[in-house]
Design goal:
One of its GO terms (molecular function) is 4-alpha-hydroxytetrahydrobiopterin dehydratase activity. The chain has helices spanning 19-26, 48-65, 92-104, and strands at residues 33-35, 38-44, 70-74, 77-82. It is α+β, with helices and mostly antiparallel strands. It has a single domain, classed as 2-Layer Sandwich (Gyrase A, domain 2), CATH 3.30.1360. Helix 2 (48-65) runs antiparallel to helix 3.
């Protein structure tokens, strides 16, 4: 499975990915790591205003996808974490949303 194979919108009909599938997809997506059963990315910003603009954009994306991350916000940074509670693991929905977040903020690490 590759990132290009994934649909562009989250689905309610998902299952947990295997460790091998998660590892394969994680190798294909920039900036994300596996942390405590979730996909996680820390993104830095020059100021609080840009941090909050990003947080609001992620909130809009999450509502559109009906897949909501945990976010930890501080001055100049935001940590975004995706996992799928209903499958108690990581699903394709998490990778779909991670790709969409990367499209909003492609060069921050």
């Amino acid at each position: 499975m590759t990132l290009a194979d994934l649909p562009t919108h989250c689905s309610n009909e998902v299952t947990a990915l295997s460790e091998a599938e998660v590892s394969d997809l994680l190798d294909q997506i920039s900036g994300w790591r596996l942390t405590q059963g979730a996909l996680e990315r820390r993104i830095n910003f020059p100021n609080f205003h840009q941090t909050m603009a990003f947080v609001n954009a992620v909130a809009q994306l999450a509502n559109e996808q009906d897949h909501h991350p945990d976010m930890h916000i501080a001055y100049g940074r935001c940590v975004v974490r995706f996992n799928t509670h209903s499958v108690r693991g990581i699903s394709v929905n998490d990778f779909i949303c991670a790709q969409l977040v990367n499209a909003m903020q492609p060069t921050s690490a």
